Amino acid sequence: MSNFRKGSQPNILVAVPLFVCLLLCGTASATPSIVLSKKVGPPTSRILVSGRGFEPDGAVNIYFDTKDEALVITNRQGAFQKIEIGAPSTARPGKHWVTAVEQNKNKGAQEPFLVRTNWSQFDFDSDGTRLNPYENSLNPRTVGRLGMKFSFATGDGSNSSPVVVDGVVFVGSNNDYVFALNANTGTPLWSHLTGGYVVNSPAVADGVVYVGSATPDSEVYALKAADGAKLWSFATGGWVSSPAVANGVVYVGSRDAHVYALNARTGKNLWSYATGDWVDCPTVANGVVYVGSNDGNLYALNAQTGAKLWSYATGGVESAPIVANGVVYVGSEEGAVYALNATNGNVLWTYSARYAVYSSPAVANGVVYIGLDGSMNALNASTGALLWSYPVGGISSAPAVANGVVYVGSMNDNVYALNAKTGNLLWSYATGWYVTSSPAIANGIVYVTSLDGNLYAFGRGSRR
């Protein structure tokens, strides 16, 4: 027989909600905290915010800095999960705060979010067009105030286009080194000696720097981005192009007349494709590798298998093609710019130049920017019609576009910034020799190398 007296059972039932009440009260008195799904990203980043320790069933406002981004009602435990907010497009590079505040109790919590943009490979990113869509510090009104932030002597001339990732700028040099520098100060972090000139752009993905060397080395290197330690290398038979990294695969062209696809983690050769002559920098878009060869053709290859999808006779390509909105844009040694259907290689338009085209294009807002006949030119991306032209004394580098400004290096030793709409000169800087590398623009700083043996970084309010 039960030892409970009559009427004792309700006391047990009362104890359950009392325990729940104490639990809830304990939760409510806890210090609120929030967790962000990411802590670093460019402007327009989507951020998932989760919180706990707030008032149960209470209203909480979530802010990015002072902008109210979301209103959420907490659950009975005083928590909320994965509320999406956005970093505003106007958020400048640097530290910002995500804050969650109760409407009634004025309790809250905050976590920092670092606004930072990476320029991770030659074309900006794995499917880039040499356009940085996140730049919000430099524009046609402010770029005229650029001054030198720092310069770094690479020990020899440099053709290598710099890349910028996680606050570090990586660049190669003609003295066979790869350098890693603090992107804000230029302080050297590490260097790695290869066996040949590092004349092309590195690429950085998942904490690894991929870079190719020239003869006599002719290898693809994978280096730890943190300290430059060698992870693996792969030998080709000739100078190695700038790598393109996409979906765990490193794609390179070589002067041994092959395109290679390497496992990014191990360096294993997944496939190779033989052309009739040396091969320049590949571009990867929508599962296709687009690459030009000195054999006179532009090739489209299946990115997984290397099988040829189509080719088009251009008369020789010494630059990287760019793919935008289903169109491949490329310059050729026969003195023409081609716009080809990316699916089948059909010609959409051509633009005739007087001399060979060695500049890779950049594409932004329906315009193709490319160096032709000693000038920087803007062509209508749909028709090929010339929109404007600005004389700069010869271009072998590719332009870069960011926030209404076109940046390009010149064979007359200068770096130029031009208005992307009009071609008007906004700013220029004279280095000590040819600027054959392509600029990178990230976080309000312009990075470019010169054959005078320096990497330059230009920022607003810096010394000239």
Structure description:
The strands form 10 sheets. Strands 2-8-7-4-5 form a 5-stranded mixed sheet, with no helix packed on it. A hairpin with a 5-residue loop joins strand 17 and strand 18. The chain contains 1 helix and 41 strands. The chain has 2 domains: 16-113, Immunoglobulins (Immunoglobulin-like, Sandwich), CATH 2.60.40.10; 131-460, Methylamine Dehydrogenase, Chain H (7 Propeller). By secondary structure, it is mainly beta. It is 5% helix and 47% strand. The chain is globular.
Extract low-pLDDT stretches: 1-28
| CATH homologous superfamily identity of the largest domain | YVTN repeat-like/Quinoprotein amine dehydrogenase
% residues in beta strands: over 45%
**Can you tell me the CATH topology of the largest domain?**
Methylamine Dehydrogenase, Chain H
Number of domains: 2
User: What strand line-up does the widest sheet have?
Assistant: 2-8-7-4-5
Distance between the amino and carboxyl termini: 95 Å
Q: SS-based structural class?
A: mainly beta
> How many alpha or pi helices?
1
- The average pLDDT is 91
Helix and strand arrangement:
Blueprint: H1 9-29, E1 33-36, E2 40-41, E3 46-52, E4 59-64, E5 67-73, E6 80-86, E7 94-102, E8 108-115, E9 131-132, E10 146-153, E11 163-165, E12 168-172, E13 177-182, E14 188-193, E15 203-205, E16 208-212, E17 219-224, E18 230-235, E19 244-246, E20 249-253, E21 258-263, E22 269-274, E23 283-285, E24 288-292, E25 297-302, E26 308-313, E27 322-324, E28 327-332, E29 336-341, E30 347-352, E31 362-364, E32 367-372, E33 375-380, E34 386-391, E35 400-402, E36 405-409, E37 414-419, E38 425-430, E39 440-442, E40 445-450, E41 454-460
Parallel strand pairs: 2-8, 9-35
Antiparallel strand pairs: 1-3, 3-6, 4-5, 4-7, 7-8, 10-41, 11-12, 12-13, 13-14, 15-16, 16-17, 17-18, 19-20, 20-21, 21-22, 23-24, 24-25, 25-26, 27-28, 28-29, 29-30, 31-32, 32-33, 33-34, 35-36, 36-37, 37-38, 39-40, 40-41
